[in-house]
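Why predict the complex rather than its parts? Because the way molecules touch one another can change local conformation, and only a joint prediction can capture that. The input here totals 296 residues.
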Amino acid sequence: MSLQIEQKTYEMPPREGLTVTHFITVADIERSARYYEKVFGGRILSLGDTKGASGHIQIANTWLIVNVGGGPTPDKPTVTLSVPDPDHISSFMNFRVADIQACYELWKSRGAEFITPPIPKYGEIRCYIRDPDGYIIEVGQSTDLTNG
Amino acid sequence: MSDVQVDQKSNEMPPKEGISIAHFLTVSDVVRSAKYYEKVFGARILTMGDGNAPPYLQLANIWMILNVGGGPTPDKPTVTLSVPDPNHINSFMNFRVADIQACYELWKSRGAEFITPPIPKYGEIRCYIRDPDGYIIEVGQSTDQVYG
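Output of the joint prediction:
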């Protein structure tokens, strides 16, 4: 799997440079992989294994890496990974879309739980999805092109 | 703003069609964070925002959106955004690299705070960085090619 950005190729794993992926701690690797496949058209590359390997899903311009939580490891001795408190969030995926109304209808029909329908706000139209673990996914369509 | 090619499909920001995925980070100081990701990892600052609109960066194959935290909004009426508790993490950016030792030396020389040097684990060599808000960034080099 590779992708090209401004004449530069991104691969997974990369043969040179850096490829950025998004890791989420999940309760059930397969459930999450199937969700991102079914709702958003992600491509499942791996469902992980019983020895601790993560699930990998290619989606749009990035890769999603999913794994269950756990306590500290030697390379992060104070950090515990867990599924989120759904009402206290720090980082999340932000899906910028060309046609938010179409995405809202399509993804809803495939089982996405939207918190609200799309709502105009600050030069964009925006809404949020809850994924199976309670992560928010922002979905936004720019309506003023100063960001563009 | 910028564009990305994936399997002959163009990802743009904002997208003219389909989805372009960005990673949103709640930060305490948007300028500090933007400069950090620019200086350490070579991210490109596309806009510093204007008070309402947040900064956008492009880093390798993704975009980053940085903003300060805040309480509920009409489109997420129960959700508060805040910088993370550094020892209780749910989701994070995972940087897959071709040469972890080179990245470790280079990024450290530019001010990255690594929790440990790279350590072999589960078919990869891995280490973590703390960003200015306490987010972890995983840095990993695959040593087996099962996800290729």
